[in-house]
């Protein structure tokens, strides 16, 4: 397949996934004013801590079976029906294990909101396995449609449980429960009609676990880098500080959404193109477009987010606005490792993914302890940035054994420095920062437009 055809297919996949992701995450973004209006910073912080703890349990106990399901479903040498059965079986078993473990430890170890955590774990694990499997079998429209359905349901449930019934933290949890059940029911019905359920193939399950377990360790390390700072903030500062950080973090997720679109479609194209003779050229071209796209959207977000943030945040959360520019810089750094992470997944070297993320997690943990007591929320952001920089450096060097990809290092560093300069200026003189940002965007478009315009 020629470069043009491969890039066209990649762009088509990106468009289909992108429409679903952007619409669904855009709807979820509407939850910010609801949450910040109906919950205090402490309540919002507690709700986010529950949500993130459930995700941590998911990383530890699910063995990343949803990711394994995608990779093995993409491989024509494996039965999709057998893969589907395993992606349903393992989340159910892990949920039962957690319930039994909670029953044993509950008598001497008290965990706040334990019932909510167990229920959300089971629903999140099943929803992730089912929706991701649609991506693995190439049904990208269904994958996108289910994401949109979940987001719409979540928004409606938040209006009912928080705005109408004023259930506070319980309403936050009930919204996720209700929205997840709807998606699971529809997705499972469609897939069970296509493939049915069978007793899991032990050999295949072993292969999928061998692939997925290192990804779980990787995801745990990534959680440490990206999320654990909130717990350090709650410990060193207050739960309210964690809530302020969480509110600012939501704005960074705009960039992460765009990257998630790229990563999901990129994994499909990378698997299909890895054995081609021109793979180095293709991978280099995609990476350059990826870096430039991430930088462009980061500069645009720096221009518009701070003026728009007061409309999304209540006055109680106004302190979060000053951290949004630095969250955008963090968002740019979060995007870069994902390209190299896909290369590891293509060659099934999940150990490489794990090692790189462990290094990032270790750097972040040390920096959290050093910087948060001194700089509080700002220190948390700086520590996360340093963690992601270490991941990027490791992966660029390590992936050379698989591909000779132009890492675009010099221009990436320049773009990062410019982002930091603009972010720093925003809190001192927003008008001068905006003028400088507009000049950078104009020069950026003039210099790099050729990369995106077909010859």
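Q: What amino acid sequence fits the structure above?
A:
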């Amino acid at each position: 397949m020629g470069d043009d055809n491969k890039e066209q297919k990649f762009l088509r996949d990106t468009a289909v996934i992108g429409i679903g992701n952007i619409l669904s995450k855009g709807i979820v973004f509407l939850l910010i004013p609801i949450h910040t209006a109906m919950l205090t910073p402490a309540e919002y912080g507690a709700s986010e801590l529950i949500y993130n703890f459930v995700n941590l349990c998911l990383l530890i106990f699910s063995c990343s079976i949803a990711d394994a399901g995608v990779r093995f479903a993409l491989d024509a040498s494996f039965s999709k029906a057998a893969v589907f059965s395993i992606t349903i079986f393992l989340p159910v078993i892990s949920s039962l294990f957690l319930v039994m473990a909670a029953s044993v430890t509950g008598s001497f170890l008290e965990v706040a909101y334990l019932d909510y955590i167990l229920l959300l774990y089971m629903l999140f694990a099943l929803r992730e396995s089912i929706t991701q499997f649609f991506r693995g079998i190439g049904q990208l429209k269904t994958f996108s449609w289910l994401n949109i359905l979940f987001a719409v349901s979540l928004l409606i449930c938040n209006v009912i449980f928080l705005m109408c019934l004023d259930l506070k933290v319980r309403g936050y949890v009930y919204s996720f429960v209700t929205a997840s059940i709807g998606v699971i029911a529809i997705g499972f019905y469609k897939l069970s009609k296509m493939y049915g359920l069978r007793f899991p193939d032990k050999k295949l399950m072993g292969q999928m676990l061998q692939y997925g377990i290192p990804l779980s360790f990787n995801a745990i390390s990534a959680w440490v880098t990206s999320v654990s700072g909130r717990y350090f903030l709650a410990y060193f500062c207050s739960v309210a500080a964690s809530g302020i950080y969480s509110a600012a973090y939501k704005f960074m997720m705009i960039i992460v959404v765009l990257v998630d679109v790229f990563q999901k479609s990129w994994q499909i194209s990378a698997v299909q193109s890895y054995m081609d003779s021109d793979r180095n050229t293709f991978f280099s071209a995609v990476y350059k477009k990826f870096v430039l796209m991430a930088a462009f959207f980061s500069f645009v977000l720096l221009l518009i987010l701070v003026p728009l943030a007061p409309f999304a945040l209540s006055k109680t959360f106004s302190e979060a606005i000053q951290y949004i520019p630095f969250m955008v810089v963090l968002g740019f750094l979060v995007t870069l490792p994902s390209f190299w992470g896909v290369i590891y997944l293509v060659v099934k070297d999940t150990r490489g993914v794990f090692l790189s993320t462990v290094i990032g997690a270790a750097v972040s943990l040390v920096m959290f302890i050093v910087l948060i007591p001194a700089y509080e929320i700002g220190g948390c952001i700086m520590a996360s940035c340093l963690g992601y920089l270490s991941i990027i450096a490791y992966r660029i060097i390590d992936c050379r054994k698989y591909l000779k990809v132009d890492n675009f290092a010099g221009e990436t560093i320049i773009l990062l420095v410019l982002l930091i300069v603009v972010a720093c200026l925003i809190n001192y003189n927003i008008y001068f920062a905006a003028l400088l940002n507009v000049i950078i965007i104009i020069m950026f478009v003039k210099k790099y437009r050729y990369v995106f315009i077909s010859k």
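Q: And what stands out in the fold?
A: Residues 39-225 form one domain.
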